[in-house]
Amino acid sequence: MLVLPAVAGLAFLVLPLAGLLIRAPWSTLPQRLAEPQVLEALRLSLVCATAATVVCVLCGVPLAWLLARVEFPGRRVVRALVTVPLVLPPVVGGVALLLVLGRRGLVGQWLESAFGITLPFTTLGVIVAEAFVAMPFLVISVEGALRAADRRFEEAAATLGASRWTVFRRVTLPLIMPGVVAGAVLCWARALGEFGATITFAGNFPGTTRTMPLAVYLALETDPDAAIVLSLVLLAVSVVVLASLRDRWVNSP
Amino acid sequence: MFRRLSRRAIAVPVALVLAGLSGCGSGEPATSSTSAAAGAKEVNVFAAASLTETFTELGKTFEAARPGVTVKFNFGSSATLAQQIVQGAPADVFAAASPATMKTVTDASLASGPTTFARNKLEIAVPKDNPAKVAELKDLTDPRVKVALCAEQVPCGAAAVKALDAAGLKVTPVTLEQDVKATLTKVELGEVDAALVYTTDVIAAAGKVQGIAFPEADKAINDYPIATLSKAPAGDLAKQFVDLVLSQQGKDVLTKAGFEAP
Amino acid sequence: MTADGLRATLVVHRPAFTLDITLDVAPGEVVALLGPNGAGKTTALRALAGLIPMSGGHISLDGRPLHHLAPEQRPIGMVFQDYLLFPHLSALDNVAFGPRCQGVSKAEARRVAAALLERVGLADRATDKPRRLSGGQAQRVALARALAVRPRLMLLDEPLAALDAHTRLEIRSQLRRHLADFDGATVLVTHDPLDAMVLADRLVVIESGVVVQQGAPAEVARRPRTGYVARLVGLNLYRGIGDGTRVEVGELPLHTSEQLDGPAFVAFSPAAVALYRTRPDGSPRNLWQATIGGIERHGDNVRVHLDGPITAFADITPAALADLELSPGQRIWASVKATETHAYPA
């Protein structure tokens, strides 16, 4: 009963990949890959996705801790809000970011006048857009790990004189590390593929904001073969990274 | 819970990669082609995004004159539409924003003898309060002025390059937007000080941006070709729609929106 | 009583029951909280540690109020039922964790930890992660970890429950030695009477959230005051009205060797009960006719459940069982000598 739909589902996911591989212009692949624009976009994608993941870990882990460990009024609402970027079309997310962090945005205005920082059309803006879209993956993953972790270890640490911060740093964090790693991987993968929020909020300029997905989209307008090549690169990078982390990912709580 | 979620979550970037490529193969338009032969009551029109307002209006006129007939539109980037047609999408009429994109379709022998029905000119769009005090094309070369252009891969970007080259000016934009509407949005939100967009887009923005015409625009006029497709399921209705676009009535609608007659 | 040691009144309201007990423990004294499951033993221990809020009462240790302090500020050491050694730290770092939290340098904390591991006989397992330790070793590391913070109050929650019978015997005697060396107050929670008898200087029996009996282990064992304690120490226990050397238990007068008037308990061992198929001659002082409710093995002997004017257990040898040809539902005569009973005021 389950095998047939399972196979159908698998085929549904795998066939488009097969299509990419079959349509790929293998003969011209090497010189296409060596093009500076491709390498530039790839480098930018990797740097931004990694930086966005760091931001997500630094802010997302404490947020997950807050949601999992601290009782406060409106916690359910906050949890729902955290998942908003999951359901929000990324382009809308990008517009929302512009309205807040843009040159005339609520916070952006002040950022510019006080610090001279503008986020749109900068690499920093790409990182912000990617972090916005990818953060829920980390928070949900880490919150799940926190809920699954045995809280009595934290109690044991408290009876040994550990402050809340020490408990978190020396007991809770090591215990949930697999969940943090899994969340960071998901977060990174999502950031790597981010398109809508990035192009809307950070724009598209080679070297500063044109990441791989943006390059793919533009290549599609004129040169579908180039788009396929770029997608294959993106795909290969994610497969390598995910496969190398697969065991930790699958075995995480 | 976590494992389920993570599996689903991992699918998202993959799906996004695939979605980004959908235009090249699987991008069926939302329209369905139920009409089988003559006596068809439905016309599928694939038209450039910049034609959204004018063609929608002409479509209503067309339907009003032919009870029982519906016109279905698929508006989008001309390049994407051309790809969809080449991949077998059931279109009757194709109206492109550039001869280059029309060429994709004629090269595939899916249409012949396209007619230019409108021309579109570039304008400088600035936010209503024009914070950078932009008055002419030369002002865009000032590094303190943030400029958005369309990416070169899309018609408005190609036109912008042509116009700037003609004027002998070098502009370093902060962003190359994926289509003209996105470029205009950046101006509306005040994120950039200026952008090069079509006159029609400035008019469609209805006062949310200010348009500044410039003489060099005449060097980069964009022709809009239209053609019935050779395999058009709607047959004669497709021809009738193209005739409407080319008629005086069609011209009036297009001119009102800022297009120029060919 | 002096201000030293632990003086606590613990009140915790729970939806199902209320815990309300008073507990005094002198420095160096080991008190065992004994009681059936759900009696509130662990609740009491967690309240002492500050892990659950109290609804009322107070806790003072060596004259210092404790109940308003967070767990990490209380001078306590706690050994949990399944030890809760931090899985990502070595045995040594587990033990060094407390001193590190108290601000001791890493080197000094490790030195203290190494000395403690040495004391519990685990110097050679210092670098092992907890999952590589046996149950008994983990228990000893947990004890060393609790001792490392130099607590004034040691709390042990079922410290031996997770061990198999053989290990338990060995660890029990070691634990007894370590607790004897400890100069602070110790509260130990257990539901095993043997653990309690061996480890504790004093037993506090809790049932349904209140103290029902307390005293030295021998005293509690000899003079149980509730059915639970009597079953725990293996005695038949009855409550009646004393009248000289007789205690009226329902319909049945039980003759005892002690003089007693007013409400009284009578206790006797199941082994003191003799069974006869026919009414015995010579008529012992305490003789009654009973119905056999059940028969089961009990160690090397056989335990016979007796219904009748009083319910009682009788322990007989398998040989006696064969001789008497007993079966459930059978009518039988039971007797206990007055000298085998023990009566005390209720």
Descriptive notes:
In chain A, 80% of the residues lie in helices and 0% in strands. Chain A has 14 helices and no strands. Chain A has helices at residues 3-23, 29-33, 36-69, 75-82, 84-87, 90-101, 108-115, 123-148, 151-159, 164-193, 196-202, 212-222, 224-244, 246-251. Chain A is mostly helical. Residues 249-253 of chain A have low confidence and may be disordered. In chain A, helix 3 runs antiparallel to helix 10 (164-193) and helix 6 packs parallel to helix 11. Chain B is an alpha/beta fold. Chain B folds into 2 domains: 41-119 and 223-256, Periplasmic binding protein-like II (D-Maltodextrin-Binding Protein, domain 2, 3-Layer(aba) Sandwich), CATH 3.40.190; 122-220, Periplasmic binding protein-like II (D-Maltodextrin-Binding Protein, domain 2, 3-Layer(aba) Sandwich). In chain B, 38% of the residues lie in helices and 20% in strands. Chain B has 9 helices and 10 strands. In chain B, helix 3 (78-86) packs parallel to helix 4 (99-107). The relative contact order of chain B is 0.18. The model of chain B is unreliable at 1-38 (pLDDT under 50). Chain C is built from 9 helices and 18 strands. In chain C, strand 7, helix 5 (165-181) and strand 8 (185-190) form a beta-alpha-beta unit. The longest helix of chain C has 17 residues, at 165-181. Chain C is of the alpha+beta class and 346 residues long. The radius of gyration of chain C is 24 Å and the shape is elongated. Chain C has helices at residues 41-49, 91-101, 106-119, 135-147, 165-181, 193-199, 217-222, 227-233, 318-324, and strands spanning 6-13, 18-25, 30-34, 56-61, 64-65, 76-79, 153-157, 185-190, 202-207, 210-215, 236-249, 252-268, 274-276, 286-298, 301-307, 312-316, 331-336, 342-345. The chains are: A mainly alpha (253), B alpha/beta (262), C alpha+beta (346). Chains in contact: A-B, A-C. Chains A and B meet through helix 1, helix 6, helix 8, helix 10 and helix 11 of A and helix 1, helix 3, strand 7 and helix 6 of B.
Number of helices of chain B: 9
Largest sheet of chain B: 5 strands, mixed
The CATH architecture term of the largest domain in chain B is 3-Layer(aba) Sandwich
What is the strand tally of chain B?
10
Main interface: chain pair and counts: A-B, 59 and 42 residues
Count of individual domains of chain A? 1
What portion of residues of chain B is helical? Answer: 25-40%
Shape of chain A: globular
How far apart are the termini of chain A? 29 Å
**What is the average per-residue confidence, as pLDDT of chain A, rounded to a whole number?**
89
Topology-level CATH name of the largest domain in chain B: D-Maltodextrin-Binding Protein, domain 2
| Number of separate domains of chain B | 2
Please give the order of strands in the largest beta sheet of chain B.
2-1-3-10-4
CATH class category name of chain A = Mainly Alpha
